[in-house]
Amino acid sequence: MSVLTEYANFRDPIGLLRRMIASRDPAARAALVRAAGTVAMTPVDLALLPFERRRIRAAKPSPHPILFIVGPPRSGTTLAYQVLAHFLPVTYFNNLTDLFPRSPLSASLLFNRWLRPNPDPFHSFYGNTAGLAEPNDAFHIWNRWLGTNRYEVPETIGADARADMRRFFDAWRTTFDAPLLNKNNRNTACVGLLGDIFPEAYFVEIRRDPVYVAQSLIVARERVQGSRFVRWGLGSSNSDPARGPQGYLDDVCRQVFGIDMALQAEKRRLGLHRFVEISYERMCADPAAAIQQVHTRIWRSRLDDDTLRFDLRPLPAHNEITIDGHEFEQIQSRMSDLYGHAGALGA
């Protein structure tokens, strides 16, 4: 996949590049370096492709589950991904795979042994992490079956694509002999599809106060797209500048609410037993408890409490007002109306 294709979802890629450099954020810089590295590694990626195809064709069904982290963008899913990947006995798509979009499995087998963990494993920049060993959303993998539009997903995919997806994930889990953990916010809109393709899958649902999710999305529009009127994230829509702040406030609140309602509908259809609900706020206050919650549900056992609590400290929840106070109050009012009306309808 070309760098241009990868950044086609952003209104102003050059402006985004400047903002990422200006941020001096290590995860932002790492994302830019990987974008260039993907081009440089293309000959190696192509050389590994025949081995990748043979390995996938030969894979047997895996006995291990898949754990999909789901939730609206800016709800804490990346932090949950980092925390769970660091402590659970799982495999996951790391940033190295981003350099080898055609042959991520073969490249991981060759190069993972040389990787070293990031000394700051719980930092990210809008879903990007630093360090080749750290978790990656893996759009470069999911795009094979779901397309390159990060904001929308196909309602269904064909039988051949389903079978290909199944073979790839079987090959990955069989090769590394472990459950697979992945976070990709776009997959929140694919819960039903993924649940049907992978009956062994569980969904770790991250829930954050929707008022702060909406606020964070507004800030993300400005920092990533350069304008609060330009959409960003799953289920988003561009806002009419003629409406002023009223436009983007309404659109972002409806984005958060719409994602949540669709997810809850699929949750009821698939069955609550396939979901582990994690509060973002409680996870930040006590990350060890969140890890235990997931491990107990999936593995039916507990991890060593002493080890977890020695290595983990409370994490900043970032639930403070970062926009104009009046706009924040408007978000609160809109969210109250949306969820209150949904409750009245029995949603």
Can you describe this structure?
The structure is a single chain. With 347 residues, the chain is an alpha/beta fold. The protein has one domain. Helices cover 55% and strands 7% of the residues. The protein is built from 16 helices and five strands. The protein has helices at residues 3-6, 13-23, 26-40, 42-57, 77-87, 95-98, 104-111, 139-146, 159-176, 191-197, 210-225, 245-270, 280-285, 287-299, 305-311, 325-344; strands at 66-70, 91-92, 180-183, 201-207, 275-279. Strands 2-3-1-4-5 form a five-stranded parallel beta sheet, with helices on both faces. α4 (42-57) packs across α7 (104-111). The longest helix has 26 residues, at 245-270. It is globular, with a radius of gyration of 20 Å. The N and C termini lie far apart (40 Å). The mean pLDDT is 93.
Keyword list:
about 350 residues, alpha/beta, 5 strands, about 55% helix
